[in-house]
UniProtKB/TrEMBL annotation:
Alphabetical UniProt keywords: Coiled coil, Signal
Coiled coil: 126-155
InterPro entries: TPR-like_helical_dom_sf (IPR011990)
Signal peptide residue numbers: 1-16
Name of the protein described by the UniProt record: Tetratricopeptide repeat protein
Length: 314
């Protein structure tokens, strides 16, 4: 008895240590590097230890069968191929990766066990049908539960109102916190709107301030003479030298606030995109609207003819 429990503990420990995905990768690597004996042994052992999915079991049986085939163990290959076909009777080997001789052995196993595999197909079909029915039953029960909850809410005088709000991604690219306002984050939206608004106003004011510095300046060219021999003079619109310091200040302010505006716009758009949800569902309880009174006329047979009745619901 002691040895039995010890064997059970060792088996359980080995089962816990086998990770299906990792184990399949290791066995596949052994097969790809030509270590057929080790690949076949480990595949057969792993199939008794870990809970593999159907696709993983098929792959391990295939590796075990092909490894046995390459080792010249035809009976071992046939046994692995039969185990594979019991999982999927209609499985096909890849003709670009598997030698034709191995495919011939595989197809012969399918042919020799045709009756048994037909029974497997029926069992698989029955299982899939049962799973389909079970899924439909779960969906039906879920709908019934939802309907019961709705009726209970109506009896309690309340119903749940669900609002689905669709949000556009394009709004997030607009300035002045448009994306934040769309998401209902008024504080963040107001912060971006005010900051960008102030920067935009300062940049515009700077532009007009620079324009206001321009004056009509008269320039005299002593090297050019008019027809009557006087120096040539003309007027241009320019900023006088004494106002160039103001020009530099306003120019720096214009470009600085402009750059800051676009930078803040980009930050706001990126922040809005990061927090974007294309669909938002909100629920709230509202008083149930009482059902309007209804009347129903019933006609039924009687021993002497017909009878009529009226049912009023309110």
């Amino acid at each position: 008895m002691k040895w039995f429990f010890l064997a059970m503990i060792v088996a359980a420990s080995a089962f816990a240590q086998v990770m299906p995905d990792r184990e399949v990768q290791i066995i596949q690597s052994l097969y790809d590097t030509g270590k057929y004996a080790e690949a076949a042994r480990r595949a057969n052992e792993s199939l008794t230890l870990a809970n593999f999915s159907d696709a993983q079991r098929i792959r391990l049986h295939e590796i075990a069968g092909l490894s046995s085939f390459h080792l010249g163990d035809t009976k071992g290959a046939q046994a692995s191929f039969l185990s594979l076909l019991k999982v999927n009777p209609d499985y096909l080997l890849d003709p670009f990766a598997v030698p034709p001789a191995a495919i011939k052995v595989f197809e012969q196993v399918r042919k020799d066990n045709g009756d048994a595999l037909n029974l497997v197909r029926q069992q698989i079909s029955l299982r899939l049908e049962q799973e389909k029915r079970a899924l439909a039953e779960r969906e039906r029960l879920a709908k019934e539960q939802e309907e019961r909850l709705r009726r209970q809410e109506i009896l309690n005088g309340k119903v749940t109102e669900r609002t689905i709000e669709k949000r556009s991604m394009l709004v997030n690219f607009l300035p002045f916190g448009a994306g934040q306002f769309q998401q209902g984050r008024v504080g963040a939206g107001a912060a971006f709107a005010v900051s960008e608004g102030v920067l935009a106003i300062l940049s515009i004011v700077s532009f007009f301030a620079i324009e206001a510095l321009f004056q009509d300046v008269t320039i005299t060219r002593d090297d050019l003479l008019t027809a009557d021999g006087r120096p040539f003079t003309f007027s241009v619109r320019a900023i006088p030298p004494e106002r160039r310091i103001q020009r530099d200040v306003w120019t720096g302010l214009k470009y600085g606030t402009g750059i800051a505006f676009y930078a803040l716009w980009g930050v706001g758009a990126g922040e809005a995109i990061w927090n974007h949800q294309s669909e938002v569902i909100t629920e709230r309880e509202v008083p149930a609207t009482p059902a309007p009174p209804s009347a129903r006329l019933r006609i039924y047979p009687t021993p002497g003819g017909l009878g009529a009745g009226v049912t009023i619901g309110f």
